[in-house]
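writing this on my phone so excuse typos. first protein, seq and then structure
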Amino acid sequence: MSLRLATFNIENLLSRFDFSGFRNQLKQDRVLRLFDVRSEAEYQRLEEARTIAHTDDTRQMSALAIADCDADILCLQEADNMAALQAFEYGYLFRMVGNGYRQKYLIEGNDSRGIDVAVLMREETRDGQRIECLEVKSHATLTYEDLDLFNEELALTNRPRDRIFKRDCLEVDLRIGGRPLTLYVVHFKSMGPARDGLDGRRATMALRAAEAKAVRHVIESRFGRGHTADKMFAICGDMNDYQEKVVILGDRRNGYEFVPHEEEVSALDILSHDGFVENPMSRRPVLDRWTLFHSRGPEERHLCQLDYIWLSPALARRNSSRVPEIVRAGQPYRTIFPAGQEVERYPRTGWDRPKASDHCPLVMTLDI
């Protein structure tokens, strides 16, 4: 019995407008900077028009990427609320590509922007096995103090009673054709701006490390410390960190060179340490594990994996010959692909936008 499981940071699936760019240029779209906007009312009118015109192409591509996953269960990051999720599922996934999901679960989490994690599920797998959702539980209220995780690094930006998860850890108990499976859906703290001589990744790593420790705590509390290896569970989502990357050298005129680089430290080491979970993407070639292209100009470009389906040891053993798939057709043309990995993009894809997302959906067929 098999299950198609996917995760995708759909990016800003919002049901509202953001007008904060009128007073904060850091939040202002680059298009509006080209125009002389004289009043806040004019800015709001233009921002509404820009957002609506841009969103339809974006969501068509997001829907195509999800359809290409053909997943029985889809874990999403950056969904605004249930209303936005339902509107997207009905108007795009179901009406546009005939690939809808009747079961939808979203609990409002901690993100200050209001973006949440969500789970969409079919009623049956592709081979006709019933998908039952037994319980959905949020862990958004856990604090550093609750788990005794507070330390000097966290004290630079946080207090002991602050919540650990910057969005949530959504625990979803399932029964697939009568067999148990538990999903933990997360979206870890993003990499912020450089601070105190550290780049954005290092400056925010303590926050993600605490989130990773909290996920382990939640799972070990559920199944028992030292008794998780034979349980059937997966951790899905955008971890906003990586253990390796592919550095991109060169330029368009003279060609590119792709250089693998292993990180000395990562917040994700907490999950992979002692074989607690396995990253099946390591079964792919080293240049072909990326789900995101990062660029801050020609001096800082790399490909990396931010999106994960971590498997419990038991689930990994049962699927030892299976390899995750990555859907990259929604990537903008500015993404630099290693030779042999090029794909045919979706219609109307732009140099930077429109696009399905900066993230690539990750999907895996699993024997349960």
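second protein below, same order as before
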Amino acid sequence: MKKRKILFLGESYRADAITWMKGLEEFGDFEICSWELQTPNHSKLSRYKRILEYLFSPLSIRKKIKQEKPDMIIAERTTSYGFLAAISGMHPIAIAQQGRTDLWPEGSLLLPFKKFIQKHAFKKADLIHAWGPVMTISMKAIGVDMSKVLVLPKGIDLSLFTPSINNSVKIEAIVTRSLQPEYRHDSILKAFGILHQKGIDFTLTIVGNGTRLQSLKDLTAALQIENKVFFTGRIPNTELPKLLQQSNTYISMPITEGVSASLFEAMACNCYPIVSDIPGNQSWIRHRKNGQLIEIDNIEMLAEELIWSFENSELRNQAILQNQKFVEENANYSTNMKIISDRYHELLNLHKN
């Protein structure tokens, strides 16, 4: 029997997208082809070029559909690729909201336009992915038909991200978010600067790449902690489990969050999570119960809570076990991607009749 083919609209190089596509191939026996914008989004000029490319992309996508003859179309981000899926003329369509609302940045002049195209994408979609409960709040607020919404994270590969025992007597922290301003790496470094001043020993591993790399290295030197902070640069996702297993504390301080696969990966590897106190993290973390929630940019609080977590090792160990169980029950990639794949097959069967 011929495999059913899915056209994926989105940035195919992103770890998140790779997880989605690979899961559909593995657990749904789908064949995947993809289409994405070719212009990078680095400078003002390239941003204008990208907008121009976006305006002409419906023609390019229709050409791709003619060539590949997919059975279904899926897309990430309701305000960009999701809208392109909605106007492609194809069905069934599954779209995924990536952030808490996808209406970002909040002060953007394009916000009214983004709201308009998002509404259209929601209306046209046959299935809407909310990778976590926090994403449904904005959907309900604008009257999305919630019977089309599947609230389920893609999950993480628990054969790769496995628990390890770390008996270290010092803080061995890891940050795995891209080095962009919204992830507040400078606040994290300044908090460790406070720990250093207090004579508290630690190591801090910063994984990934981004626009802030050089300025973060400069800040590390200014705080005189460069011999305790390690920048790995971009690494393959297959190397990440080992780095997480060598750490005992996971730190993530984004100013906005949808559902963080990075958090689940850290939990699966027995890292104790210390994260920003925002709705996307509040869905999974309860303060001083199974992790810690820190006010955005509150450097003193982050430093204090790091110290508190290390002084309360019994609570930390209980939290680690609890989090491991939670990830196994709720964020297992093979279980969740099978559910998602089955839903796609159901949709395809409905549209066949």
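The longest helix spans residues 44-68. thats all i got for now
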